[in-house]
Amino acid sequence: MTPFPVRLAHELDACPEERRWLIEGLWGAEAVGIVGGEPKCCKSFLALQLAVSVASGAPCLQRFPAAKTGRVLLFAAEDAPHVVRDRLERICAVAAVTLADLDIQVIVAPVLRLDLDADRARLDDTIASLHPTLLVLDPFVRLHRIDENVSAEVAPLLAYLRGLQRRYHVAVVLVHHARKGAAHARAGQALRGSSEFHAWGDSNLYLRRSGEELSLVIEHRAAPSSAALALALRAEDNGLALRLVEARAAAGSPPAAPSLSAPARIEQILSVAQSPQSARELRKAARMRASSLGDALAALVTSGRVTKSEGKYHLTPR
């Protein structure tokens, strides 16, 4: 019998910082995971904003830079096609991009069942032909007729989606409901059904509502997670999208440290700067060590996302 192949741990391939993310700090590169929350928590809006960010390169939630762009494949089981288009157009308006310019492919079949071999084969063939960077499935409850509370029934469906990710190097966003009345449970443990959902995700985003207030918890398998961030669904002219709400610091206290990676923090600062910034200015604004700043700037310049000119840095025009 042939033994399994092995390699010494120090010889395993390393992943450069600039290749770890699909959306900096928000969704890992080729990650599978959950956008979860109770009904009416704007889960679908968040999933569509992830899609627009990947397809356009615009920062998601106006804060998290897209590290990689590409085609998006979307199946919205609960919304009519005209509703999907309207939501995408309004999100695009806020992001200052045009929907017609984006490669977002929408599956328009009325039903897609992950528990049916025929539908899984069709989805496999669709992904093989389109080669999307991101697959969005919304919501899980409309994609099967299994018992979500039974691990033995849930696991094969999630394993199939993991298989898609590995075969086609595609990130997978699965929208899923949280249990009602689970506001005091840990975000991942509040997901409806089997604990397989929480264990499966590489990147998970959890939305919660308290009255009129929304909060977002970001959780990663291989990167630091974040504390809850305040969100609001805001209309701007013809646009409608989720935005981060900056928390006000108590009088005399320093502002909270950003939850983004070092390169993402630098890009965020440059995105709102009125002019190119020196390393000293960036270090002061980002509140990071000189060595961390140097590594982040080197990665951004090497990847082409930031340009250095006359000793100062600015975002490279897309």
Q: What is the N-to-C succession of helices and strands? A: EEEHEHEHEHEHEEEEHEHHEE
- Architecture of the largest domain, according to CATH? 3-Layer(aba) Sandwich
CATH topology of the largest domain, which one? Rossmann fold
As a whole number of angstroms, the C-alpha radius of gyration is 20 Å
In total, the number of domains comes to 2
CATH homology superfamily of the largest domain = P-loop containing nucleotide triphosphate hydrolases
CATH class (first level) name of the largest domain:
Alpha Beta
Q: Give the fraction of residues assigned to helices.
A: 25-40%
For the record, give the distance between the C-alpha atoms at the N and C termini, rounded to a whole number. Answer: 53 Å
Shape: globular
The major beta sheet can be summarized as:
9 strands, mixed
* Mean of all residue-level pLDDT scores: 88
Question: Top keywords for this entry?
Answer:
single chain, 22% strand, Rossmann fold, alpha/beta, 318 residues, three-stranded antiparallel sheet, 14 strands
Task: Describe this entry's structure for a reader.
The chain is of the alpha/beta class and 318 residues long. The chain has two domains: 15-244, P-loop containing nucleotide triphosphate hydrolases (Rossmann fold); 262-315, Winged helix-like DNA-binding domain superfamily/Winged helix DNA-binding domain (Arc Repressor Mutant, subunit A, Orthogonal Bundle), CATH 1.10.10.10. It contains eight helices and 14 strands. The strands form three sheets. A nine-stranded mixed beta sheet has the order 5-4-6-7-3-8-9-10-11. The chain is globular, with a radius of gyration of 20 Å. The protein starts with 20 loop residues before the first strand and ends with a strand.
